[in-house]
Write a structure and sequence with these properties.
It is found in: Cytoplasm. NAD(+) binds at residues 276-288. The structure is a single chain. Helix content is 40%, strand content 19%. It is of the alpha/beta class. The strands form two sheets. A ten-stranded mixed beta sheet has the order 2-1-3-12-11-4-5-10-8-9, with helices on both faces. The two termini are 22 Å apart. Bound molecules: nicotinamide-adenine-dinucleotide (NAD), 3-isopropylmalic acid and magnesium ion. Residues 84, 87-88, 242, 274, 276 line the site of 3-isopropylmalic acid.
Length: 347
C-alpha cells in the first residue's frame, strides 16, 4: 500500500511530520511512503504548484496524506499558478467529489469550545461537502462593464448528476450513523440550490430509513452555534461546506482539530486537515497537529482497510487530551512536536 505524502506550505510540513511519526509507530505491514512537493513549495522549485510528477504520484498511490497549501509570497501570481490551485487540481483530477468533515466533541475539550459546555458536549456531526462543482469550478474571469468598470465573475452551477452522487454519499453516511440528514442550501434565492433540493428529495426515495430535512444556509450557520447537537449529517455544496466546516471546527474547540477525507467513487481518498497553511504561525512549532493525525486515522479506515489502527490513533488522541496535552490554539503551550510526543506516548 503506497501512501503519497504531500506536506505543502507553511505549517503543512510541520503537521504532516507528526502524522508520519504516528503512522511509523503503528508499523502497519506493507505500508510504503513517497513524498512530493505541492503548492507554493512546488511553484518555487518547479514553476508549477501541481507538477506532473506530484500528480502522477497522487494517481499511483492508494491514498494521499496532504498538509496544506498557501504562500503569501505567491499572492500576486496569476490564479493558475497560485498554491491553492494544487489542492483544487487534485480534487478535480482524481474526482474526489465527496468531502467528509466530521466534527465530534472530545469531552476533554468542551471548555475550549466557543459554546457553553452543555451545548458543546452534544456535538457529533458530519459535514458532507460536495467538492467537484459549484462556484469553485465554474467559468470565472474579469471583464469590463459597458461603462468601463472592472467586473469579476464566477459562475455557480450544479448539474443533477453532481448533486445525485453527493446525495447518495450523504444518505449512506446517515444510514451508518444516526439516520438523520439535513440538506443545506439557499433554495429561496439560487437556481443551483433549487435543483439541489429537488434532486436530494428524489434520491431520498432510495433511503426510507433516513429522516431528511432542509435548511437555508444562513439559518444553518446560526443553528450550528445555537444547537449543534441537532445535526447528524449535513450535506451541502462546495462553498457553503467550506464555510460551515470552519465554523463547526471552533464549536469543537479549534480549527486544529478538524480532519477530513476527500473520496472518489471507489474509496480512494485524499486526507487533510481542514485548515490552511497558517502563515501567521508557520515555522514557530505552534501548530496543532491533531487534525492531521486524525486525518491519517481516516485514511487508514477509509482507504487502507486498517480500521483497528485507525481506532488506536483516535484513542491515543483522546488519551493525550485527557492527560492535559494542549497546543496554543487549545489554550496550552505544547509545541507541535511535543503534541506528537504526547500522542505517541498514549499509543
Ligand atoms: N486545504 C488547504 O490547503 C487550505 C485550507 C484553508 C486555507 N488554505 C490556505 O492557507 C492560507 C492561509 O489561510 P487562512 O489564514 O485563511 O486559514 P488558515 O486555516 O491557514 O488559518 C486560520 C487561522 O487559524 C490558525 N490555525 C490554522 N491551523 C491551525 C493549527 N493546526 N493549529 C493552530 N492554529 C491553526 C491560523 O494560525 C490562523 O490564525 C491561504 O493561502 C489559504 O488559501 C489552504
Ligand atoms: C484552499 C481552499 C481552496 C480550500 C477550499 O476552499 O476548499 C480550503 O479552504 C479548504 O477548506 O480545503
Ligand atoms: Mg476551507
Amino acid at each position: 500500500m503506497l501512501v503519497a505524502i504531500l506536506p505543502g506550505d507553511g505549517i503543512g510540513p510541520e503537521v504532516t511530520a507528526q502524522a508520519r511519526r504516528v503512522l511509523d509507530a503503528l508499523a502497519v505491514p506493507g505500508m510504503t511512503y513517497e513524498s512530493a512537493l505541492v503548492g507554493g513549495a512546488a511553484y518555487h522549485a518547479t514553476g508549477h504548484p501541481l507538477p506532473p510528477e506530484t500528480l502522477d504520484l497522487a494517481k499511483r498511490a492508494d491514498a494521499i496524506l496532504f498538509g496544506a497549501v498557501g504562500d503569501p509570497t505567491c499572492d500576486s501570481l496569476e490564479r493558475a499558478l497560485r498554491p491553492e490551485q494544487a489542492i483544487l487540481g487534485l480534487r478535480k483530477e482524481l474526482t474526489l467529489f465527496s468531502n467528509l468533515r466530521p466534527a465530534k466533541m472530545f469531552p476533554e475539550l468542551a471548555d475550549d469550545s466557543t459554546l457553553r459546555r452543555e451545548i458543546a458536549e452534544a456535538i457529533d456531526l458530519l459535514i458532507v461537502r460536495e467538492l467537484n462543482g459549484d462556484v469553485y469550478f465554474g467559468e470565472k474571469g474579469m471583464r469590463r462593464t459597458a461603462d468601463g468598470l472592472r467586473e469579476g465573475y464566477d459562475i455557480m452551477s450544479y448539474n443533477e448528476a453532481e448533486v445525485r452522487r453527493i446525495a447518495h454519499s450523504a444518505f449512506k453516511a446517515a444510514q451508518a450513523r444516526r439516520g438523520k440528514l439535513c440538506s443545506v442550501d439557499k433554495a429561496n434565492v439560487l437556481e443551483t440550490s433549487q435543483l439541489w433540493r429537488d434532486v436530494v428529495i428524489e434520491v431520498a426515495a432510495d433511503y426510507p430509513d433516513v429522516a431528511l430535512s432542509h435548511m437555508y444556509v444562513d439559518n444553518a450557520a446560526m443553528q450550528l452555534v445555537r444547537n449543534p447537537g441537532q445535526f447528524d449529517v449535513i450535506v451541502t455544496g462546495n462553498l457553503f461546506g467550506d464555510i460551515l466546516s470552519d465554523q463547526a471546527s471552533m464549536c469543537v474547540g479549534s480549527i486544529g482539530m478538524l480532519a477530513s477525507a476527500s473520496l472518489d467513487a471507489n474509496g480512494k481518498g485524499l486526507y487533510e486537515p481542514i485548515h490552511g497553511s497558517a502563515p501567521d504561525i508557520a515555522g514557530q512549532s505552534k501548530a496543532n497537529p491533531l487534525a492531521t493525525i486524525l486525518s491519517a486515522a481516516m485514511m487508514l479506515r477509509f482507504s487502507l482497510g486498517q480500521a483497528e489502527a485507525a481506532d488506536r490513533i483516535e484513542a491515543a488522541v483522546a488519551k493525550a487530551l485527557a492527560g492535559g496535552a494542549r497546543t496554543a490554539d487549545l489554550g496550552g503551550s505544547l509545541s507541535t512536536s511535543a503534541m506528537g510526543d504526547a500522542v505517541l506516548a498514549a499509543l
